C-alpha cells in the first residue's frame, strides 16, 4: 500500500507495461495512450488510496478509544522530555569517551615514567588545606591522599572558611589518616587561613595544598620529601601540575592552557606588559603552560625561581622564621612572595617532576564575582610592586644583559641590535652576543614590531627613535659617531644608558645630562659582550625618582636636579602626583619627595628622602616623619641640591641593607642564614 506521503505528490505517474523485444513474434508497434485515458487511470488510483486511508483512520480511532491506550499515551507524553534528556546524555557520554580515554592514556604514561622507588616513610608532613564550599573537590582529594599516596607519615590540617555545603561532613569522615579541622566563622584570605594551619602543624615539613588537587602517581609525596631531605639548603619543593579533562568548564583566565596539558612546572619572572598604563612591573608567570606533560624528561628535579602554593612543600622552621605567608595579599601572589623570601634567605626552590598532580585551577574561586576578583588583583599588584618592584626590576634588567645569571628566568631574553644591515661592526656585535648566549636579531633603524618587542635594544644608529619603545624595554646606545648626532635628535636622552666609544664622547654625553657608562672602543675583542657589560655597570648605580606635585611645580628645578644627578652617574627621573601610586613608580631605589605637602607615603622597600625648602618647614612640626633622610637646602641651586642628594645616597651607613644591591644574589651580602636548619 502506498503511504500518505505519496498522496501529496500529484506528479507521480504509473509505469507503463514493459514492451516485448523487437524479435518477439506477433509484436505490434506500441501506440501511446491518449491524454484523457492517462488522467482517468490516475484518478482511479487516487480514489483507491483515499479509500484505504479512510479504513486505516477508522481503525486508529477505535484503538485510541480504549482506556489502556489512552493511559499509555499520557505516560508517553509525560516521559518524553525525560527520555530525550537520557538519550542526550548517552550521546554526550559517547562524545566524552575519547577525551576520557586520552586522560587514562596520559595517566598511564606519567605512571610509567615515575615507577621507580620513592621514599615511603620519614619525617612527619603537615598537609594544610584551605577550603570553602569545596566538598566536591574534597571528595576527590581526600581519597587520593589515602589511596594514591604511598608516603604515610602525614597529618591533614583543614582550615574551613565558613562553608555552607557539606564540606565539614566530608572532612569529619574516617579517611584512615589524622585529620584536624579548623572552622572559621568567616571567609578569611588564603594567607590568613594557611597561617592558621602553619601555626598548629606538628610536622618537620608543611605541605600547602589546594583542595582542587588530585594525585596522579602514588610516590608524589615521598619524592618531594626525599628531594628536600637530600640537601638542607633546599627550602621548598613544588610539583608538576596538569590540567585534567574538565567537561563544560570555562576558566576565567584566558591564558589558561587546554585540558590534559601542563598548568605549572615552576614560576619565572617577566615584565607585566598587558596591564594598565603605569603597571609595567616584574611579574610571575607559570612555566610550561599548555605544553605536553608526557615526556620522561619532566620526571626530574630542577631548581626554579619560584613555585606555586597549590602544592608546595616547605621546611616548617623556615616558613615560621619568615613569618608565614604575607597577609597583605588576598588570593594571589602570596606564594610568589614566600618563594622570593625563601630565596632571599639563601635557600633554593626545586620543582619535583616526580610529583605529578591534576589541578582543577580556579576551582574554589569561581564563585567570586568579576568585580571582587579584579579588586583583589589590583590590590595584589600594588602590594607586590611596593614590596618587590625595586629589587626584581634591577635583577630583570641585569639578566637581560647577562643571561647566564638565570635567577628569575629559565631562558635568555631577546636582544634587538639596531644598525644598518650591511654594517660590518654590527655583525661583529651580533656574533659576539650570540656566542654569549643571547637571542639576537639585527634590525634596521626605524624598525617597529609591537607584537615581538625585545627586552633589550642595543642601538648603533642615532636615527632610530626609541621614544615609542615599551617602558620595560632596556635601551642602550653605543655612541661611535659624532656625539652631537645623538644629542641633537628629538629623542635625545631617551636611551636608558649611553656607552661611549671614547672619553671625549663620554664628556659630551655627560655634559648633556645622559646616563653614561664606561667607554668601549670599536676594536675591543668580544665587542657585543663588552658593550653590555659596560651597561650592566651602570645598572648598579642608584635609580632615583624625584616626586613633585605637578609638571610646573617649582619651575624647572626638578628637571635640572635630575640632569645633575645623571651627570653624577645616577639614573634619575621626575614623576608627578598622578604617577606616585602607579605600580611601576615603585621600580626605583630612592624616592626624593619635593612636594610641599610631603604626603607621598614612604615605602620600606625604597630609600625615602624629603627635600624641604628651609629649616622652618621642619622646626615644630612632624613633617618628614617616616623618611630615612630629610634634606634642608640652604640654596635653590640645582647642582648643589643634586650634590646633597647624591652625598646622602653615597653615605651607605644610613641606607637600609640591600637597598642598592640585588637581594637575591647569594654571591654578595644578603640576609641569608649562615647555617642550614638542623
Any key phrases for this structure?
17% strand, 678 residues, single chain, 10-stranded mixed beta sheet, 34% helix, alpha/beta
How would you explain this protein's 3D organization?
The chain is of the alpha/beta class and 678 residues long. It has 15 helices and 22 strands. The strands form 4 sheets. Strands 1, 2, 3, 4, 5, 6, 7, 10, 11 and 12 form a 10-stranded mixed beta sheet that branches. A 5-stranded parallel beta sheet has the order 14-13-15-16-17. It has a 5-stranded parallel beta sheet with strand order 19-18-20-21-22, covered by helices on one side. Strand 1, helix 3 (135-147) and strand 2 form a beta-alpha-beta unit. Helix 9 crosses helix 13 (527-539). The longest helix has 47 residues, at 67-113. It is globular. The N and C termini lie far apart (95 Å). Mean pLDDT is 81; it is low at 1-33, 90-96 and 656-674.
Brief write-up:
With 678 residues, this protein is of the alpha/beta class. Helices cover 34% and strands 17% of the residues.
Morphology call? globular
Return the average pLDDT rounded to an integer: 81
Low-confidence stretches: 1-33, 90-96, 656-674
> How many separate helices?
15
> What is the share of helical residues?
25-40%
Fraction in beta strands:
15-25%
Task: Please give the alpha-carbon distance between the first and last residues.
Answer: 95 Å
Main sheet record: 10 strands, mixed
Total strands: the figure is: 22
Structural class: alpha/beta
Q: What's the alpha carbon Rg, rounded to whole Å?
A: 37 Å
Amino acid at each position: 500500500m502506498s503511504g500518505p506521503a505519496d498522496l501529496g505528490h500529484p506528479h507521480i505517474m504509473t509505469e507503463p507495461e514493459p514492451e516485448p523485444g523487437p524479435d518477439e513474434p506477433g509484436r505490434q508497434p506500441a501506440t501511446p495512450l491518449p491524454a484523457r485515458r492517462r488522467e482517468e487511470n490516475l484518478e482511479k488510483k487516487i480514489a483507491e488510496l483515499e479509500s484505504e486511508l479512510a479504513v486505516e483512520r477508522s481503525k486508529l480511532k477505535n484503538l485510541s478509544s480504549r482506556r489502556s491506550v489512552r493511559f499509555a499515551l499520557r505516560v508517553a507524553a509525560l516521559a518524553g522530555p525525560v527520555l530525550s534528556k537520557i538519550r542526550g546524555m548517552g550521546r554526550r557520554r559517547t562524545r566524552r569517551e575519547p577525551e576520557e580515554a586520552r586522560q587514562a592514556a596520559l595517566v598511564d604514561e606519567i605512571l610509567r615514567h615515575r615507577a621507580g622507588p620513592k621514599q615511603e616513610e620519614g619525617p612527619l608532613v603537615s598537609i594544610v588545606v584551605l577550603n570553602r564550599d569545596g566538598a566536591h573537590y574534597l571528595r576527590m582529594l581526600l581519597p587520593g591522599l589515602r589511596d594514591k599516596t604511598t608516603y604515610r607519615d602525614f597529618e591533614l590540617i583543614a582550615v574551613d572558611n565558613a562553608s555552607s555545603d557539606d564540606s565539614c561532613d566530608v572532612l569529619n569522615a574516617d579517611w584512615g589518616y589524622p585529620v584536624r579541622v579548623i572552622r572559621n566563622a568567616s571567609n578569611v584570605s588564603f594567607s590568613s587561613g594557611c597561617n592558621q594551619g602553619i601555626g598548629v602543624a606538628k610536622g618537620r615539613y608543611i605541605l600547602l595544598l589546594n583542595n582542587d588537587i588530585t594525585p596522579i602517581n602514588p610516590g608524589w609525596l615521598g619524592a618531594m620529601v626525599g628531594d628536600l631531605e637530600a640537601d638542607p639548603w633546599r627550602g621548598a619543593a613544588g610539583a608538576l601540575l596538569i590540567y585534567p579533562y574538565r567537561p563544560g568548564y570555562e576558566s576565567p583566565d584566558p591564558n589558561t592552557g587546554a585540558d590534559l596539558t601542563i598548568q605549572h612546572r615552576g614560576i619565572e619572572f617577566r615584565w607585566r606588559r598587558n596591564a594598565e598604563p603605569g603597571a609595567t612591573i616584574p611579574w610571575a608567570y607559570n612555566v610550561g603552560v599548555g605544553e605536553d606533560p608526557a615526556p620522561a624528561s619532566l620526571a626530574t628535579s630542577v631548581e626554579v625561581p619560584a613555585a606555586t602554593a597549590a602544592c608546595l612543600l616547605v621546611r616548617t622552621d623556615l616558613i615560621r622564621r619568615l613569618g608565614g605567608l604575607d597577609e597583605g595579599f588576598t588570593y594571589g601572589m602570596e606564594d610568589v612572595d614566600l618563594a622570593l623570601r625563601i630565596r632571599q634567605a639563601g635557600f633554593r626552590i626545586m620543582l619535583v617532576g616526580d610529583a605529578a598532580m591534576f589541578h582543577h585551577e580556579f576551582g574554589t574561586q569561581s564563585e567570586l564575582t568579576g568585580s571582587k576578583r579584579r579588586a583583589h588583583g589590583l590590590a595584589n599588584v600594588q602590594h607586590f610592586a611596593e614590596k618587590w618592584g625595586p629589587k626584581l626590576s634591577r635583577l630583570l634588567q641585569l639578566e637581560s644583559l647577562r643571561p647566564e645569571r638565570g635567577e628569575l628566568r629559565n631562558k635568555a631574553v631577546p636582544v634587538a641590535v639596531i644598525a644598518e644591515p650591511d654594517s660590518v661592526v654590527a655583525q661583529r656585535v651580533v656574533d659576539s652576543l650570540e656566542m654569549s648566549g643571547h637571542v639576537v636579531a639585527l634590525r634596521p633603524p626605524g624598525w617597529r614590531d609591537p607584537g615581538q618587542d625585545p627586552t633589550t635594544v642595543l642601538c648603533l644608529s642615532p636615527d632610530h627613535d626609541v621614544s615609542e619603545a615599551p617602558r620595560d624595554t632596556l635601551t642602550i646606545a653605543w655612541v661611535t659617531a659624532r656625539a652631537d648626532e645623538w644629542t641633537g635628535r628629538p629623542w635625545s636622552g631617551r636611551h636608558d644608558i649611553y656607552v661611549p666609544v671614547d672619553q671625549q664622547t663620554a664628556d659630551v654625553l655627560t655634559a648633556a645630562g645622559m646616563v653614561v657608562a664606561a667607554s668601549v672602543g670599536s676594536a675591543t675583542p668580544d665587542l657585543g659582550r663588552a658593550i653590555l657589560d659596560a651597561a650592566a655597570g651602570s645598572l648598579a648605580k642608584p635609580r632615583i625618582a624625584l616626586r613633585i606635585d605637578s609638571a610646573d611645580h617649582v619651575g624647572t628645578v626638578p628637571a635640572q636636579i635630575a640632569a645633575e644627578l645623571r651627570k653624577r652617574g645616577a639614573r634619575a627621573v621626575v614623576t608627578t602626583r598622578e604617577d606616585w601610586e602607579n605600580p611601576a613608580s615603585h621600580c626605583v631605589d630612592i624616592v626624593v619627595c619635593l612636594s610641599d605637602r610631603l604626603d607621598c607615603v614612604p615605602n620600606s622597600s625604597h630609600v625615602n628622602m624629603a627635600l624641604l625648602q628651609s629649616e622652618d618647614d621642619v622646626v615644630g612640626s612632624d613633617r618628614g616623619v617616616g623618611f630615612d633622610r630629610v634634606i634642608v637646602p640652604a640654596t635653590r641651586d640645582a647642582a648643589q641640591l643634586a650634590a646633597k642628594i647624591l652625598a646622602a645616597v653615597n653615605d651607605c651607613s644610613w641606607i637600609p641593607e640591600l637597598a642598592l644591591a640585588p637581594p637575591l644574589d647569594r654571591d654578595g651580602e644578603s640576609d641569608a642564614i649562615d647555617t642550614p636548619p638542623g
